[in-house]
From TrEMBL:
Gene name of this polypeptide: nuoH
Family to which this protein belongs: Belongs to the complex I subunit 1 family.
Coiled coil: none
Enzyme class label: translocase
Protein name in UniProt: NADH-quinone oxidoreductase subunit H
Assembly, per entry: NDH-1 is composed of 14 different subunits. Subunits NuoA, H, J, K, L, M, N constitute the membrane sector of the complex.
Native source organism of the sequence: Melioribacter roseus (strain DSM 23840 / JCM 17771 / VKM B-2668 / P3M-2)
Superkingdom, taxonomy of origin: Bacteria
Family annotation (Pfam families): NADHdh
Length: 343
């Protein structure tokens, strides 16, 4: 392809990815409310649109037209920047996650990923470590002790679980021999999914993802009974919506990464031996990837409404005394597998 064709294809990919992510975030709120209603024997949203399907749009309009209140004691510049930092990190991470194999469209070979880079996983880890700045700056700049405590909790929590998350991914990189997400998916051919080969790494990564996204039972930076709302106590209107969007976008990104790193990505075991056409195979593989992601999102919601919040000392003990040693043990286990079975 010429340079202009590459630019046009990239712009189209970015537009599709952003649209899909924004719609997914909006409807994740809807599905969370519906699943929580099912868990608690309630109805959930059922007024705006058929079965409440237009409720996400009503919520967005409500937040847009609310008054934007900034406390007098707040640092107004950082108070405004904080939600945009969180949003940028959440949306930029999506760029390196592939949702399917390479396809032939209009005579061009198109990779179903916005940016196919060799250091994709390193890029993800770098961006997720920046996400803490949005929350910490929000807490500090609000001029509220409750917000500040939430921001400090978030920084301590994310540092603790990022270590475990990084070491959990170490086993995946050893198996694939590459930092490129597409190579990691290709290495999980058949039933060689990393969740099966290294279940300890899979569990530690999933638990770390819950802590990384500030979801129950690890939502200590918000903790309404203790901190009134934590780091976003002093936020309203569209700025509050920014943090809300970032949380759900992070949940979707975490699910995409779990599927890519541990659940085989778009791989369907031995589908290439069924003799299906290339087009049908590709459609089934993309559908498999989306179904796996939907299942992980359901798990995120299910856990939220099933397990009570940890105390802060329990959270830190779990991060440093349980998750970190297990992540190291997983690396040793994978290294032994590679040495013994020449994987």
């Amino acid at each position: 392809m010429t340079i202009w064709e590459i630019i046009i294809v990239s712009v189209i990919k970015i537009a599709i990815a952003l649209t899909a992510l924004l719609l997914s975030v909006a409807y994740m709120v809807y599905f969370e409310r519906k699943i929580s209603a099912w868990a608690q024997n309630r109805l959930g949203p059922n007024r705006v649109g058929y079965k409440g399907l237009l409720q996400p749009f009503a919520d967005v309009f409500k937040l847009l037209f609310k008054e934007d209140i900034v406390p007098n004691a707040a640092d107004k510049t950082l108070h405004t920047m904080a939600p945009f930092i969180s949003l940028f990190v959440a949306f930029a991470t999506y760029a390196v996650v592939p949702i399917g194999p390479e396809v032939n469209l209009f005579g061009y070979q198109i990779k179903l990923v916005v940016a196919d880079v060799n250091i994709g996983i390193l890029y993800v880890l770098a961006l997720t470590s920046l996400g803490v700045y949005g929350i910490t700056l929000a807490g500090w700049s609000s001029g509220s002790k409750y917000s500040l405590l939430g921001g400090i909790r978030s920084s301590a929590q994310m540092i603790s679980y990022e270590v475990s998350m990084g070491f959990s991914i170490g086993g995946v990189l050893l198996m694939a021999g590459s930092l490129r997400p597409i190579d990691i998916v290709d290495a999980q051919y058949g039933w060689m999914w990393n969740a099966i080969v290294q279940p300890i790494g899979f569990i530690t990564f999933v638990v770390s993802a819950f802590a990384e996204t500030n979801r129950l039972p690890f939502d200590l930076p918000e903790a309404e009974p203790e901190l009134v709302g934590g780091y976003h106590t002093e936020y309203s209107s569209f700025k509050f919506a920014g943090f809300f969007l970032a949380e759900y976008a992070n949940m979707i990104i975490a699910s995409l990464l779990i599927v890519t790193l541990y659940l085989g990505g778009w791989q369907i075991p031995y589908i290439d031996k069924l003799g299906l056409s290339e087009g049908l195979t590709t459609v089934l593989q993309i559908a498999a990837f989306l179904l796996k992601t939907a299942f992980m999102l359901f798990v995120f919601i299910w856990v939220r409404w099933s397990i009570p919040r940890f105390r802060y000392d329990q959270l830190m003990n779990l991060g440093w005394k349980v998750m970190f040693p297990l992540a190291l043990l997983n690396i040793v286990w994978v290294a032994l597998l590679i040495m013994i079975f020449k994987l």
